User: What shape does this take?
Amino acid sequence: MKKILSLLVLVLAFSSCEDDATFNNPSVQGTKDGAFWRATSSSAVVVGNTLTITAVTPFEILTLKTSSVEPGVYTLGEDNSNAASYTFSADGINSEYATGAGLGDGEIVVEISPVGTVTGTFEFNAPGAGGAVLNYINGVFYHVPIQAAQ
Assistant: This one.
């Protein structure tokens, strides 16, 4: 009887477990100025040979731009063909940071992805108004869908 009761308890314990996995596919996230940051939505667009990835939250827009859609490492801060920008706008407060020709540094790494998506990593330091610098490290974009150019 004890064996049956023990078996019944085990069956009930395992049957009440629920698989509550959450998947972030697609996802754009990273560490922004020392704090974890994740976009609520993201998309990518290819115009000509330029890839632009946009990640947004209710008050923020992160944009990553590369001069090619090919897998590779794209250096930021040398010119405007590869760039990263970040905009915050809420309650009358607006902040903008961007890399560009001679501004900021970092890199965007585009990896091979399934057709119709883009995956890779990023990190950058982008200057803003008043000498402030925004820092992103450990940035990842994963299976971001490539939209048709409009």
Notes: The CA atoms of residues 7 and 13 lie 10 Å apart. Residues 2-15 form the longest helix (14 residues). Residues 10-22 have pLDDT under 50 and may be disordered. DSSP finds one helix and eleven strands in the chain.
